[in-house]
Amino acid sequence: MESNNKLIEAFKELKSASFISVNNYQSKTTGELANHVININISVENAKKNDLNTLRNCKKSDLLTISENTKLSIEILKEAFTELIINAEKNLSPIKDEHTNQSKGQTDAYFHLTPAIKVNKNTSEIHVFGQAIDKKVLVKGIYKEVKSSDKTIAKNAIKKHLDLRSDKFRTFICDNINNIKINNQIINL
Q1: Distances 8 to 17, 64, 75, 119, 169 between C-alpha atoms, Å
Q2: How far is CA 113 from the centre of its chain?
Q3: CB of 189 within 8 A of CB of 178?
Q4: What is the DSSP pairing of strand 179-182 with strand 117-120?
Q5: Most buried by CB count within 10 Å: which residue of 7, 105, 161, 171?
């Protein structure tokens, strides 16, 4: 508990965006052990706005390139692209009820202690939240085979090709972190 308080106080002192290291994080689902660099205290809202702008500026040549690289049909890519635009617009609506179910679920599941520290309302687990910048896998986990539909694969390919940022936000459960380096201070958890 003392380490959590120390962590929260260190985060409260930050007045702007900062890079931090999340060290020896063990994934709850795969068991993977990795070190992460994340950018905290940045605006998810701005990332969503920039992503929507990027989507709106996507050219047909981008979809053709994705089609060539993934062997997905241009029709599937156009359908996925249209859904990405619609969902991006919904998630930027000032009316929360218009947001996608996934967005509402994320918003409703937590309350924030700082812009980068949130608490899960159901489990009371403390999470660190930020945009993933880098990851170094120390021990591989057990990864289940994912059987996504072509449309989901197309959406992911579009996001990757256009380097959309709002999908790069991650939460890290503090109980699964060995330590965090913030402003040259190491906080053991």
Answers
A1: 16, 47, 48, 11, 19
A2: 18
A3: yes
A4: unpaired
A5: 7
